[in-house]
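debug: dumping io for the single-chain case to check the tokenizer round-trip. Nothing else runs in this session.
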Amino acid sequence: MSAVMSAHETVRVRHQGDVCYLQMYRPDSNNTINDEMVRECAEVLDDCARWAKVVVLEGLPDVFCFGADLRGMRSAAAQGASPHDAQALYALWLQLKRGPFVSVAHVRGKANAGGVGFAVACDIVLCDQKASFSLSELLFGLLPACVLPFLIDRVGRARAHTMTLMTQPVVAQQALAWGLADACDEDSDKLLRMQLLRLRLLPKDGIARHKRYMASLDDFLEASRAKAVACNKEVFSDAHTLSKIDRYLATGEFPWQQEAVR
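debug: decoded output
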């Protein structure tokens, strides 16, 4: 039996026994991240800490998560509001990494920028054969500041560095080879079901003890938090960078594309 929880604006939540399915759900915004999504995800994970053995994080069939909602951020800034809360986003990813449950990212389609952050913050990453992982930030003069500590933790500094500079999508088979994904299948729903059969055998207290121990072995993620948030604030405060974003939102032209000669 499963129970569908519907009191959310940006996520869909379903409970099936001791498994929580947390779906990021902003189909009209390409499943981009806003503060409401971060807040709602954090609330769900707080609840899951009490009872869930496994949290399955999902997106839409063709896009897992496409990163920050740039349009929403610039609209908020124009109204004098804070454009986004990097501190809360980093804390959310720490919840996925450190929470007393097994976090499983089920990636179908595109994971870009902060979407990669959501995936690599999870304990296990499963994907379909159409999945891709990309960091597009540097094309706009931005940096994946909050993503990088979690990506480094998963695939190492050199590959995280390369992904940032190349900005090109890492396809599913390459993601497997790099350790960015743990398993891949054309039918990722079947793959997920097979993994859950084993994961649900684990005792809740054993999972929590293991996660606490793993966290105690290395404080890299926590130690990187202040630097990541500060760097994020710096790049999103740069007027030249923001002008590139505004131009892209207004015209659809990327920063490297010159305006047509009149």
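debug: round-trip ok. The chain has one domain: 2-186+203-251.
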